[in-house]
Amino acid sequence: MNVIERFLRYVSFDTQSAEDSDTVPTTAKQKLLGAALAQELTEIGLHGAKMDEYGYVYGWLPATAGCEGIPCVGLIAHMDTSPEAPGDGVKPQIIHYEGGDIPLSERVIMREADFESLKKYVGRDLIVTDGTTLLGADDKAGVAEILTAMEYLVNHPELPHGRIAVGITPDEEVGSGADHFDVEGFGAAAAYTVDGGELGELEYENFNAASARVTIRGFNIHPGSAKNKMKNACLIAMEFAGMLPPAETPAHTEGYEGFYHLNRMEGDETETRLGFLLRDHDRTRFEARKERMNLIAAYLNEKYGPTT
């Protein structure tokens, strides 16, 4: 099975993770792909292939003769896809890209002006969706690449290498992919995550990340008699968001610049909820971002007082 065949097989599995779940993994359906991957690792010829109780998949390839003393290297990818867009019923399409916009369907167009990196792939075959779901390349492409590489090494024992450990995790998209990872059992001296990025890209740094949930409880009353009484949670939520630096959002930042990202808003006058992602490469600035959120909450609590 080549890497494309593997990838197309993996995206047929719906493996969305879930932010508000208290189970491990956050969705049971991730284990369906996990079990299939463990079986495939066994069939390829890796040792110790298994899926544990948390949905993590492991296996390892022994060192070739004479390379037993080389430190073990790990390869890691994640099987889950983002909960922010549908992941079921993926309809992948393979197109030969000649430049310009890509019509994914009659209603959805991937515009070159919005995705400048497309210009680098003129003349290549691309795998895309029909625009109604995620493709799942983040990170089933990484999973397919790792398993294809392992199969190649098994079939070419003349290529020398040390011990290679493989780990496929659930729940990366919701920030808990490392929570139950068996680092000691994995046994790698160093590991590489094979995840999304441009061809040839190698990242050696990481950012600090947090999520924040803000709940505003207002006081609702009939609009005809609301003067000096109503506390509209929707408006207070807008005020909260407006007190964050407007230039420190993903639409205005790049490189090492951190940001506040409002990615969820729902509610009514009585209760409104906001969801944020916080990112910063600098740990001190990262902690300051969290503290700013707390200070804004304290200020608005003081300003509007209790709602009961």
Class from secondary-structure proportions: alpha+beta
Which spans of ≥5 residues are poorly predicted at pLDDT below 50?
none
Query: What is the name of the CATH architecture of the largest domain?
Result: 3-Layer(aba) Sandwich
The CATH class of the largest domain turns out to be: Alpha Beta
Describe, in short, the structure shown.
25% of the residues lie in helices and 22% in strands. By secondary structure, the protein is an alpha+beta fold. A five-stranded mixed sheet has the order 1-2-8-3-9, covered by helices on one side. A three-stranded antiparallel sheet has the order 10-12-11.
What does this structure look like?
This protein is α+β, with helices and mostly antiparallel strands and 308 residues long. It has a five-stranded mixed beta sheet with strand order 1-2-8-3-9, with helices on one face. Strands 10-12-11 form a three-stranded antiparallel beta sheet. It has a two-stranded antiparallel ribbon with strand order 4-7. It has helices spanning 3-10, 30-44, 137-155, 183-186, 233-242, 283-304, and strands spanning 47-51, 57-61, 73-78, 93-96, 102-103, 109-110, 125-128, 164-169, 190-193, 208-217, 259-267, 271-280. A hairpin with a 5-residue loop joins β1 (47-51) and β2 (57-61). α1 (3-10) crosses α3.
